């Protein structure tokens, strides 16, 4: 397990996610997993899906950022003194 995580949850958020993960496993699979297995499963999910989700967010943000920066640059040029 890497100590440099792509995604770091706050303690409160991590506990909430772990609770939901344990509840999901119980309701969907009738499997009662403890704290340590839930934490290992969460770490695995983050390590496996995290990079893909992160990249997708970056890709989704690119057009929005491009539009915003274009507007900012146009506004900056309007302040030029000729």
Topology overview:
Layout: H1 11-29, H2 35-78
Helix pairs in contact: 1-2
What does this structure look like?
Helices cover 77% and strands 0% of the residues. It is mainly α. It starts with 10 loop residues before the first helix and ends with a helix. The relative contact order is 0.10.
Q: Structural class of the secondary elements?
A: mainly alpha
Shape: rod-shaped
Largest sheet, in brief, is: none
Total number of strands: 0
Strand content: under 5%
Overall pLDDT score: 91
- Helical content band: over 70%
Low-confidence stretches: none
Q: Could you say how many structural domains there are in total?
A: 1
For the CA atoms, what is the radius of gyration?
A: 21 Å
Separate helix tally = 2
Note the run of SSEs as H and E. Answer: HH
End-to-end Cα distance, whole Å, is 59 Å
Concise overview:
The protein has 82 residues and is mostly helical.
Name some characteristics of this structure.
2 helices; mainly alpha; rod-shaped; single chain
